UniProtKB/TrEMBL annotation:
This is Transporter. Keywords: Membrane, Transmembrane, Transmembrane helix. InterPro entries: MOT1/MOT2 (IPR031563). GO terms for molecular function: molybdate ion transmembrane transporter activity. The chain crosses the membrane at residues 47-70, 90-118, 149-169, 176-196, 216-239, 260-286, 298-320, 327-343, 355-384. It holds the Pfam family MFS_MOT1. It comes from Bythopirellula polymerisocia.
Length: 400
């Protein structure tokens, strides 16, 4: 897969650093919060989870990922699983079983070489379509659900945040995300936080190891893991590898490593009472878009969750639920924009760009659309290549 040019992706002299802590890494650390926080907060009561444990495990996984990769590639909740848990109130033991099941599946795919084969076989235009579809989905979520959530005051708050991001976009001296997050904190402190419900944890709450039962693993596989796999293969693994090549062409991070860390993270999350997680091209784009260039942003992001879980215990979900969703919506919207602009390198080829738009539309509008779109785009690409080869052969035969 070809990489984007230097003109497409801005570079800085210090981007060879593995881990750095500065204002830009801090700003970039909030680039995926719009996706993560609402899902985590909604999953905790729906599945009867321990809020402190969820935050501690999620934070630890972020920190370890930042150290391991050295680029701003965070962990995210598994979205298909999260939606099913939230809407169907699936119990926590089944969720942990699903995490174990999908960990085993992804590990087998990675070690066997199946993931590497898929990465070679699937054309880049189909992967771009998945990125495009995810960008449309995130933008829709931001504009339809998040921004309108607080009524008139929410619209005003979102508008101010939007202007801040536009004016300061790309400014590495005054990162936009820091001002936006600070504004959200001020609004929450004044309008939405119920301070009487918050309390500092009386004792240190650390996750305990508990192995899911075979029944929980089997039920989790059927109810949660199988619906999640198509989205994970397309967005969490294949599209993430492409986005890494786009944003960090100097880093050789293969799809096998992405699959293995996905599997290992879910193995430990299921044992420790955490929610199942994945990598994702949206989170990577979000961190990068708001200024992050190293694993430092992911470490900062994880430390925030870890500290909240340790300090506030079971009341942590009460605090984060009070954060204004319109602010998260603006962050989510610009995360979507970062994904949408990646399709620019397809604009010069009519056939490939058509496949990108088609795959994106399917991913956005069809149930299990990420898998359906990926398969459809790949099939069209190979059919077109076959037609092109057949036409060329016919022309050569006529000439001879």
């Amino acid at each position: 897969m070809a990489n984007m040019s230097e003109a497409d992706i801005p570079q800085t002299p210090s981007e060879s650093a593995w881990i750095r802590f500065d204002r830009n890494e801090l700003a970039g650390s909030f680039g995926d919060i719009g996706t993560d926080l609402p899902l985590i907060v909604a999953m905790i009561p729906a599945a009867g989870l321990n809020g402190a444990t969820v935050f501690i495990v999620f934070g630890l996984l972020q920190i370890l990922t930042g150290i391991l990769y050295g680029v701003p590639m965070p962990m995210q909740p598994l979205k298909a699983m999260a939606v099913l848990v939230i809407t169907q109130k699936i119990a926590g033991n089944v969720l942990f079983g699903a995490g174990m099941a999908i960990a085993v599946i992804m590990l087998v795919l990675s070690i066997s070489g199946a993931l590497s084969w898929l990465a070679r076989a699937i054309p880049r235009c189909a992967v771009r379509g998945v990125q495009f579809g995810l960008g449309l989905s995130l933008a829709s979520l931001a504009l339809k659900d998040y921004v309108p959530s607080l009524g008139t005051s929410g619209y005003v708050l979102a508008a101010v945040c939007f202007v801040i991001v536009v004016v300061l976009w790309g400014n590495r001296r005054v990162p936009a995300a820091l001002l936006v997050i600070l504004l959200g904190l001020v609004y929450a402190a004044m309008a939405t936080v119920d301070w009487s419900t918050l309390r500092i944890a009386s004792s240190l709450s650390l996750p305990a190891i508990e192995v899911p039962t075979w029944d929980a693993i089997w039920t989790g596989l059927i109810l949660l893991a199988l619906p999640q796999i198509p989205l994970s293969l397309s967005n969490s693994v294949i599209a993430t590898e492409q986005t890494l090549h786009d944003l960090f062409p100097q880093r050789a991070i293969g799809i096998k490593k992405i699959g293995v860390t996905y599997a290992v993270a879910n193995f430990f999350a299921s044992l420790l009472g955490g929610i199942p997680v994945c990598h994702g091209c949206g989170g990577l784009a979000g961190h990068y878009g708001f200024g992050a260039r190293t694993g430092g942003s992911v470490i900062i992001y994880g430390t925030m969750y870890l500290a909240l879980g340790l300090l506030l215990g079971d009341t942590v979900d009460v605090l984060v639920a009070a954060y204004p969703r319109p602010v998260l919506g603006v962050i989510l919207l610009f995360e979507a924009v970062m994904l949408l602009v990646l399709v620019r390198d397809m604009a010069g080829d009519k056939t490939q760009f058509t496949i990108v738009v088609l795959v994106g539309a399917i991913a956005f509008g069809v149930k299990q659309g990420f898998l359906v779109g990926l398969l459809t785009g790949t099939a069209i690409w190979y059919f077109w290549k076959w037609r092109e080869s057949a036409s060329q052969s016919s022309a050569e035969n006529l000439e001879s």
